[in-house]
Amino acid sequence: MNNFRIVLTEEQIQKRVKELGEQITKDYNEKSPIVICMLKGAIVFFSDVVRNLNVPLSMEFVRLSSYKNGTTAGEMEVVSDLKCDIAGKDVIIIEDIVDSGKTLSYFIKLLQEKNPASVKICAFLDKKARREVEVKVDYAGFDIDCGFVVGYGLDYAERYRELPFLAEVIDPSKL
Ligand code: IMP
Ligand code: MG
User: Fold this and answer.
1) Is the pLDDT of residue 74 over 60?
2) For 33-50, what is each residue's pLDDT tens digit?
3) Which of 53, 68, 124, 164 is the S-S candidate for 74 at Cβ 3.0 to 4.6 Å?
4) Do the Cβ atoms of 139 and 20 come closer than 8 Å?
5) Per-residue pLDDT averaged across 108-129, rounded?
């Protein structure tokens, strides 16, 4: 673990997830949103957030791929698409991290063609400084400005997703 620096502890994450759950519950009072988990990275955050929501909701899972391996971006691809009709529905997208913004701006364009009533984004991490395409995160867990991070769903070449905390990789070449 000496190539990792802890950025967020499990306690810090869980406290923030509860706050987000309360805020979203308040905002979606009297609504029944479709909550979309962006696989694979958002799975851990998603499962914590939905258990802190006190509104009738349904869950959907989408898998887009932009990072093929390691830390370099590859081609964008819809690996597994939505299986339900979102026309007239309130949609909340749950994502692990918004970095360049390319993944979510691509996905939101696809969603808008299906005429949802509303689309909001809830992301565990917002790396605003690295944005290349405009994407507004409505519910951000944490704004961060650091290097490549792993844990709490985020991976490096499919590893470290299971860590209950978030850590920055000090030297990616040593992974
Ligand atoms: P974007 O399209 O550049 O916004 O990238 C978003 C996706 O890249 C996220 O859903 C992650 O899967 C991945 N990603 C970006 N930064 C990191 C990181 O620091 N650690 C792990 N995955 C990352
Ligand atoms: Mg992702």
Assistant:
1) no
2) 999 999 999 999 999 999
3) 68
4) yes
5) 97
Beta bridge partners of 167: 6, 150
Residues marked active site are found at: 99
- 87 CB-contact burial (10 Å; exposed 0-12 / middle 13-18 / buried 19+): exposed
Q: Is the CB of 153 under 6 A from ligand 1?
A: no
Buried b or exposed e, range 52-65, using 16+ CB within 10 angstroms: bbebebeeebbebe
Q: Which domains does the chain have, with CATH numbers?
A: 4-145 (3.40.50.2020)
Burial class (CB within 10 angstroms; exposed 0-12, middle 13-18, buried 19+) of 92: buried
What is the model's pLDDT at position 73?
A: 55
Whether 142 lines ligand 1, by a CB cut-off of 6 Å, is: no
CA nearest ligand 1 atom 12, residue: 41
Ligand nearest to the CA of residue 107, numbered in listed order: 1
